Amino acid sequence: MGQTSAAGPIKDRDALVSEFPLTLQCEADGDAFFRVYACFFREGILIVYVREGTGNGALIRLLERRDEVIRNLIRKRLPVFTDVAVLVADLQDSVRICSELPPDEYFELINEIWAAMEPIFRRYYGTHGKHVGDGMVYYFFPQPDSSYIFNALCCAHEMHQAMRRISKGWQLRKNWPTELYLNTGLNEGQEWLGVFHVATKVEFTVLGDTINQAARLSDFARNGSLWATKNLISRMPSEERRRVRFGIRRKAMDSSEMFVNSSYSRLSELVDLNSPRNEKYKDIATLAVTEITEIETLTR
Length: 300
Prior knowledge:
Elements: E1 4-6, E2 11-13, E3 17-26, E4 30-41, E5 44-51, H1 57-65, H2 68-74, E6 80-91, H3 94-100, H4 103-123, E7 127-128, E8 136-140, H5 148-174, E9 182-198, E10 201-207, H6 209-220, E11 226-229, H7 230-234, H8 238-241, E12 244-251, E13 257-261, E14 265-266, E15 288-295
Parallel strand pairs: 9-11
Antiparallel strand pairs: 1-3, 2-3, 3-4, 4-5, 6-8, 6-9, 7-8, 9-10, 11-15, 12-13, 12-15, 14-15
């Protein structure tokens, strides 16, 4: 293979897929003509060579569809003010679990959880957010063909089901009584989306109360429960809201517990804020919240 040359201007496809002609000078066969496509992702750049005359329509559609919402946002100058649903999930009692498992097994567990959740969040067009330790943060932005809020709820629901399978597998493997839970908080709002440039990667970050409140709800949730703000549920169209079972568990007159469907509660009515361990919830004491117990998902 000899020298290479490029001719003609670069064709910019929504600023993230670039296309240009390329001639490869081969000593034996003469010149070979290609179209080169460079697709820009936050993980790196994908470069594809397609020989001239070869059908490339399917390839272009594939490259242009991935993370379409992020491309739409990046067309604008970041940071940008945008609607967003935030999902924060934490492994319950992670410190205790870390102390009970050998280090290699604890890292194996965390990697297994992340591997199981990755295809779920991609299926619902989630975007990784800044996270610490074994916690997970996903952002869901408005999509042209689906509801970003319902995507977040469905993602959380499927993550909950996947965690049950992981927990059962580890209990059988280790004859271990510990139940593994992912506690999840969900919120929706309008916030600033920007990026942090760290060494060789770019990390998307959302700033504001939306993510802080979702993180507090995740910390409040116990035993794998899913909690969402009233604001998130209220932003859903009625036909989608009917597919979500949510409510608050209340004490009946006889001290038994009953589930009040389609209801909310201020967080201050659910925890004793006078207890030192609950002081961290005081900043969201008046936040109206609800527990998600069931979601009728679409077949994807």
